[in-house]
């Protein structure tokens, strides 16, 4: 049985002459909530686009659910929520979802299901242009959930939401994972890290930590995820790793603290591994 929803090897992405992501390796386990965290401009969206299959890749490969990223047969198995709401403003919420359901081949009954799960039943007949930013984002999330995809790629889904709605969405994400879905969720809000099963911290196009919330805090001795990430970034900067040169697994980067063996198990001078829908 396949135990990885996403696998990237040697992923390199360039914009003009600039290398945005360099030789990145990535594994996303099935049925988990994987948080992709990091400051704006760190490469999170670019990596997610590569996973979905809409990003031009210079070299390397990305496998999604056992198939090359972007394969036609993944269309109904991968749900993708972009950072900006992707809905038609002149249609009602329900009409938007009916349209996307037809495009994706999802059953009509799915529209009411996703409206209910995203707490949008009361806005079903409301024109999209009259929605708040947070409501519009939830419509995009509902569209990504149509057809119950195996993998949800969500680019900053909680942006613009108040704390109560953010908490409700994370409860929804947990429910989806318990039902068997895999979620790759990006955020620059570090306190959301503790809601994930695994954490990937990106900086300058590289994954500099791959860990769990428990190991993140235990390994750094920090009181919060934000403090822990700042500590990791400071250590990464001190090591003067050339930007974009691969990924360092959190179990390696934090090995001095997490494993308690007093030394790193990864040669930071070398190139590590990194990684990085419905279309």
What does this structure look like?
With 279 residues, the protein is an alpha/beta fold. It has two domains: 4-77 and 150-237, P-loop containing nucleotide triphosphate hydrolases (Rossmann fold), CATH 3.40.50.300; 86-148, no CATH class. Helix content is 32%, strand content 23%. It has nine helices and ten strands. Strands 6-7-8-3-9-10 form a six-stranded mixed β-sheet, sandwiched between helices. Strands 2-1-4-5 form a four-stranded antiparallel β-sheet, covered by helices on one side. β4 and β5 form a beta hairpin. α6 (213-220) crosses α7 (225-238). Keywords: ATP-binding, Nucleotide-binding. This is ABC-2 type transport system ATP-binding protein. GO terms for molecular function: ATP binding; ATP hydrolysis activity. It holds the Pfam family ABC_tran.
Q: What attributes characterize this protein structure?
A:
about 25% strand; about 30% helix; ATP-binding; ABC-2 type transport system ATP-binding protein; four-stranded antiparallel beta sheet; disordered C terminus; about 280 residues; 2 domains; alpha/beta; Rossmann fold; single chain; six-stranded mixed beta sheet
